[in-house]
Fold:
Amino acid sequence: MFTLFAKKHAVVDLPLDNAVELDALNAVAAVVADRLNLDRQAVKSSLIASEVAGSQIVADRVVVMHATSDQLTRPQSLLITFREAVQWSEASTPVDYALVLVIPDGSDYETVAAPAVAKLVAQKGTLGTLKSNASALNRLNATLL
Structure:
């Protein structure tokens, strides 16, 4: 019964004031913090730090970001679509999806990310049709971790 009230970890058509990377990072941090009941500034700082280390874009349209938190005991993933494509990183790659992995402090990011990214890449052909379908995105997100 309680699963009916669980927050969904997929967000469809996230609106941005401007379709630029910094606005997208701010909006994503707010969504992640809200959905996982984490501190917004801590999430934002961690996401920015991961982006400074280098952007990862997969399936020609998905930016993969990560944050760490001492409030989590197991990794969480959120799949987000942007209403408008965002020009991402120095390469200005247009992305319309973000996969956000939030991992407990001390966890190995690569161990968590590799299988999730592989599953997402395997779904590359369906991402266009799933973009506005929150239920389908939630199901896809549930398979990533």
User: Anything to note?
Assistant: The beta strands are 10-14, 56-58, 62-69, 76-88, 93-104.
